[in-house]
Design a protein that fits this description.
This protein has 301 residues and is an alpha+beta fold. The strands form two sheets. Strands 1, 2, 3, 4, 5, 6 and 7 form a seven-stranded mixed beta sheet that branches. Helix 6 packs antiparallel against helix 7. The longest helix is centred in the C-terminal third of the chain and has 23 residues. Bound molecules: (3R)-3-hydroxy-3-methyl-5-(phosphonooxy)pentanoic acid. (3R)-3-hydroxy-3-methyl-5-(phosphonooxy)pentanoic acid binds next to helix 4 and helix 5. (3R)-3-hydroxy-3-methyl-5-(phosphonooxy)pentanoic acid (PMV) binds next to helix 4 and helix 5.
Length: 301
């Protein structure tokens, strides 16, 4: 019996950080970049193995108060069992950790779905999203909920804390978007809390990001690539104003623009992690991909 389940990464096109303060944001799933969870009976004890993080532990050895421990305890409560199954949960992920692509939420959603398969129980997307959000609070402190929502529903969405999500009605296929890993790891919880510490200074920029995201929804819906690129550049400038970029991201983003990209910006929490580059066409996307790979960066398309 196959109990493998998976969940995708996500990238925020517009509105990160501002979304924490009630503004809308736009995110899309990266369906080819996934985390897999596989739960197989072992007749012994519950054990969790993750090759990426070199974890090989029984439940008792998990760090107390960790996201994984929280998730497993919520699952026990949800499925009303008093102990975890005698099984090995193996995690395999291609999503880089702490780099703005929602690796934590993808891990949660993949594990929840693997448990559903193992116990032959179904949970609605709403229930899965709710559990993943509770775990996000451990990873992020006060998350907006955009990561878990994009990943649970695996749809391009417009998200706001007060209104939840609606599907983005845009054809994204013509966009030549590169997602590029700066290789710098940065914890979302730290960046979000520094924006909060300087909230008074940051507030005007946060509100401007909200207005800009409104324009981006329109530009995406009518496929105006020039405008989308311009808005990405403006969004990046506002993210710099709230101090969530970093010299390396600034350097790569400037290089992409110098090479003729329509727009470039960081994605996710920032101060490292991934950035987005919108190329003019597939030929330029190929050229930019090679350029960044030659600089030793990992490029997702
Ligand atoms: O860096 P990520 O993938 O965890 O994205 C965080 C997005 C923020 O807007 C910065 C925080 C949030 O909870 O929305």
């Amino acid at each position: 019996m196959d109990h493998t389940a998976s969940a995708s990464a996500k990238t925020i096109l517009f509105g990160e950080h501002a979304v924490v303060y009630g503004e809308p944001a736009i995110a899309i799933p990266l369906t080819k970049l996934r985390t897999y969870a596989d739960l197989v009976p072992n007749q012994k004890e519950f054990r969790i193995i993750s090759e990426n993080t070199r974890l090989n532990h029984p439940y008792e050895k998990l760090r107390p108060e960790s996201g994984l421990q929280k998730l497993l305890s919520i699952l026990m409560e949800t499925f009303e069992f008093d102990k975890l199954p005698q099984g090995t949960l193996t995690i395999q992920s291609r999503i880089p950790i702490a780099s703005g692509l929602g690796s934590g939420a993808a891990l949660s959603v993949a594990i929840i779905r693997a448990f559903c398969k193992y116990y032959n129980k179904s949970l609605s997307n709403e229930q899965i999203n709710d559990i993943a959000y509770r775990v996000e609070k451990i990873y992020h402190g006060q998350p907006s909920g955009i990561d878990n929502t994009t990943i649970t529903y695996e749809q391009p969405i417009i998200f706001s804390k007060s209104d939840g999500f609606t599907r983005l009605k845009a054809d994204l296929n013509p966009l030549n978007l590169l997602i590029i890993d700066s290789g710098i790891r940065s914890r979302t919880v730290d960046v979000v809390s520094s924006v909060r510490t300087n909230y008074e200074k940051n507030e005007p920029f946060i509100r401007q990001i909200g207005v800009l995201t409104g324009s981006a929804i329109k530009a995406l819906e009518c496929g105006d690539q020039q405008k989308i690129g311009e808005l990405m550049n403006q969004n990046q400038q506002l993210l710099e104003c709230i101090d969530v970029s970093c010299p390396e991201l600034d350097k790569w983003i400037t290089l992409a623009r110098k090479e003729g990209a329509l727009g470039a910006k960081l994605t996710g929490a920032g101060r490292g992690g991934n950035f987005l580059v919108l190329a003019q066409d597939s030929k330029q996307a190929g050229k930019l991909k090679r350029l960044f790979e030659n600089h030793g960066l990992r490029v997702f398309q």
